[in-house]
Amino acid sequence: MPLFYQPNVTSGEHFLDGEESRHCVKVLRHSNGDAIEIIDGDGSKYTAVITNANHKKCEFNITEAIKKQHPPHYIHLAISPTKNMDRMEWLIEKIVEIGVQEVSFILCKNSERRVLKIDRLIKKAISAMKQSGQFYLPKIHELNSFDKFISDSVQEEKFIAYVDKSNQSFLHKAASAKSNYCILIGPEGDFTKEELQAAFDHQFNMVSLGPSTLRTETAGLAACHTLNLLNW
Amino acid sequence: MPLFYQPNVTSGEHFLDGEESRHCVKVLRHSNGDAIEIIDGDGSKYTAVITNANHKKCEFNITEAIKKQHPPHYIHLAISPTKNMDRMEWLIEKIVEIGVQEVSFILCKNSERRVLKIDRLIKKAISAMKQSGQFYLPKIHELNSFDKFISDSVQEEKFIAYVDKSNQSFLHKAASAKSNYCILIGPEGDFTKEELQAAFDHQFNMVSLGPSTLRTETAGLAACHTLNLLNW
Predict the structure, then answer these.
(1) Which of A1, A176, B4, B189 is least crowded, fewest Cβ atoms below 10 Å from its Cβ?
(2) How does residue A50 score in pLDDT terms, banded at 50, 70 and 90?
C-alpha cells in the first residue's frame, strides 16, 4: 500500500500536506475510496481511505492505527558537517535506516563546512524513514557551535570519538545497553586538543570506533550501528 | 608523505605502474630524490626515494618496509549488486574503510542488475585503502551465480541475512570471534524461498542484521561492521 508522511495526525489534521497530496493525487493518481498508509514520524502508522482526492489537500479517514514503542535506548549523534553535502545526505539516509533518534551538526575549529541547510537533509530523512519502515523521524537540528553543543548536552552517556592509536577504549565496550547516548564525531582534521579538553570538562569520554581511520560520515554511521547493536 | 599503490613490490618490481607514475610525476610534480610511501595491498608499506621520475614508469629505491599482520578474522561478503552502481561504489568505499577481506557479487533470482563491471569498484577500493590507512586490498570477484557461489564457499561460519520478523537470530550473537565468515546479502526483493533452502543445504545459517529493513548496500556495510566489532 502506498505510504505517506504526515505529522500531527493525532491533533485531528486528517489531510496530507501540499507535497504529499500532489504526490498522492497527481503522481500516483489515487482517487476517493483508495486505501493509503500514513506515518506521522512520531511512532504511529495509520491505514486510511481517501475521502477527498484534492491534489493540494488530500483528505482521508483513518480506519486503523498502530503505535510503535520507542526503542529502549536513545542515540543523539553530533557530527561536524563534511564539505561535500552528498556525504551528509548519504549519512542521514543510512542512520535513519539503521536507527537514530536525534542528529546535531557541530561547528568545530577544523570543520570544512561553516554553513549548512538542513531542509534537504530532513527530506532525505523522511524518504529513508518511509523506505525502511521506521515509525520515528529523528530530530535534526541546525548547525550549532561545538562549545554551545557540549555545554547544553543532557544525555546520560557522553562520548567523543577521537583518532588516537593509543586509545583502546572502544565505544562498543564503553557504552552500556538501554541507555541514552550522545556521541561526537569530528571533522576530517579531527577535534583540536582544546575541543577534546572542553569535552572532557563536560563529562564526555574519549572512545575509538575501531582500528581504522574512518571518514567523518563513515564514523557517524559506525557509531550509530555500534550503539544499536548493544541494544538488540 | 604522498602515498601510492603498487602491488608486487616484493617480487622486485621497484617502479610505479602507468597511472600511479603519471599521478606522482605529472600531477604531484615529484622529482628524483623525493620521498614517497607505497602500499602493496598485501600488508606491506614502504618508504622509498624516487630514483627516476619518469611519468610512465617512476622508479624508486626502498628505504624502509613495514609489514602489518592480517587481522585475526576474515570477512567474505557476498552481495547481490544493486541496480544503481553508485550504491555499490559507495559500499566498496565504506567496507574497505571499515575492513573486509573478500567481496563477491552474486546473481540471485531477484537481482536487479545482471551485468557488473568490477574495474571501477577495484579503483574505488584502492582509493579507500589509501585514504583510510589500510594495508590490505580486499579481493573483489566478478559476478557469479548464487548456486555456484554457495556450493564453492569454504568459510567456517556461513550466514545468510534474511528479512523475517520472526527471525531473532542476530548476526552479532550468532557469530564467534576470531573466525572466518561468509555472509550473504540478497537483492531488494530478498532471496527466494528456494535460494534460502539451497543456502541451508550448504550449511548457511539464517541471521538478522537488526529490527530495521535495510537497503542492500546498508545491509552489506552493517554486516561487515558487526563482524569486525566481534573481533575488536
Answers:
(1) A1
(2) very high
Q: How many residues does chain A have?
A: 232
Report chain B residues whose CB lies below 8 A from the CB of A214.
Answer: 97-98, 132
Q: Do A210 and B226 touch (CB under 8 A)?
A: no
pLDDT higher than threshold 80 for residue A11? no
What pLDDT does residue A12 have? 73
pLDDT of residue A120: 96
The pLDDT tens digits of the residues spanning B68-82 come to 999 999 999 999 999
Residue type, B63: T
- In CATH terms, B74-229 corresponds, of 3.40.350.10, 3.60.40.10, 3.40.1280.10, 3.30.70.1170, to 3.40.1280.10
CB–CB of B210 and A229 under 8 A? Answer: yes
Q: Tell me the per-residue pLDDT of A127-144, one tens digit each, with 9 for 90 and over.
A: 999 998 899 999 999 999
Shortest CA gap A95–chain B (Å): 9
> What SS3 class is residue B205?
strand
B170 vs A133, A172, A232: nearest CB: A232
Nearest to A121 by CA among A147, A103, A146: A103
Given a contact cutoff of 8 angstroms between Cβ atoms, the answer to whether A83 and A212 are in contact is: no
pLDDT of the residue at B146: 98
Q: Which residue has the cell 575501531?
A: A210
C-alpha cell at B85: 552502481
> B3-67, superfamily in CATH?
Hypothetical PUA domain-like; domain 1 (2.40.240.20)
Give the residue carrying C-alpha cell 541496480. B83
Q: What residue ranges do the domains of chain A occupy?
A: 3-67, 74-229
- Nearby residues of B88 by Cβ (< 8 Å), 6 or more positions away: B81, B82, B116, B121, B217
Q: Say how many CA atoms lie within 13 Å of A200 toward its Cβ.
A: 10
C-alpha cell at A44: 504511529
